[in-house]
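Incident log entry.

Two folding requests arrived from the same account within the same minute. Monitoring flagged them as a possible duplicate submission, but the sequences differ. Recording both here for audit purposes.

Request one:
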Amino acid sequence: MIDALLASLALKAVDRAGWKRVGIADPESVAAHSWGVSLLALTLAPEELDRGRLLTYAALHDLPECRAGDITPHDGVSRADKHAAEVAALSQLGELGLPPHLAAAWHDYEAQADAEARFVRQLDRLDMALQALLYAPRAEVREFVASAERYVDHPVLVPLLAEVRSRLEGVG
């Protein structure tokens, strides 16, 4: 188990690749992003959603990146190849002692198996947009907000994303 934990904690040192691509020299880590998604889940979850499941998905949604790296759409890797790399990474973590129920939860998230998975996927995008607003004075980040706008449609989240867009328009 300790080896799986140590390998997983390496996520703290994996930089978010999209931010590096646009010139952010000290970008957030993937683990910091996962914390952001978790905070959004705690803050914004509608009552009908299971908070435990939301937090599980939020904490685990990028876990395989501790081995596979942060693969972005700009890397020229197909979705199928990215998924295969992440499944292989998760399998490696399993061999190191990652509990099977955590791997199963990651697979449920990837399959968008329930309302909680779908909500966390949108929180993932909202967190990216919020981070873009924080980075806006240092880099051109409108593409990240535009990307989030293509995916976020939950009525709780749409107004927040609109506020991000509005504030971004006011930046430099």
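Request two (distinct sequence, not a duplicate):
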Amino acid sequence: MFTAPIASMNTEAAPSGLLQLIWLASPALPIGGFSYSEGLEAAIEHGWVHDADSSTAWVVDQLHLTQSRGDMAVIGQAIPAWQNGDVERLKALNQWVMATRESAEMRLQTEQMGRSLLDWLRNLQQASEAQLSCCAQLPTTYPLALALALSLAPVPLEQALQAYAFGWAENMTQAALKAVPLGQSAGQRMLARLAREIPLAVQTALQLTDDERQAFSPMLAILSARHETQYSRIFRS
């Protein structure tokens, strides 16, 4: 358990829970999410993603097959663990995330974004010293760091996961716009489809137990490994 009280999300007057979620989901958050495509660029290189329809299908599949069953489920379980100061639970969830990163690029992404988000929390004094000390013992992956940030926002768990999912969807849409490439209207249609799919993905994530969480996407892992040596690329994954 933490020896220090749970921190609020700021040092003076807290913004509303909605504003905190918008802030955390914003592409302007300086954690580097815009620099990763999570295998999408490699799928484009191999011709599997080549237009608006195939881009949308790819991202929707990834939302349901990898995000909702893996990282979103972890975040949903880690938020109450942060609020309750359950260090052992947080360590177990963090270890599971690390074990699911099947390529060097995937591991790099979760570690780098986790460190950057913790730096953001530290710089804005939005987490307690006890929480930051716990993070230093892990090292913290991005899902665990984001769960910490979301745990400080006074919002229902479902809304916290919706904010995460939309932020992820926006980053993936921007990756498709740059790498396929697609136009802005196509990107908005993709986001509209993802916005309709996100509630179901959130409900799936919230219902999963430890035994039901999974990260089985072998072709994504293969694409990520191939991306490491891809001749021409824009993104880091």
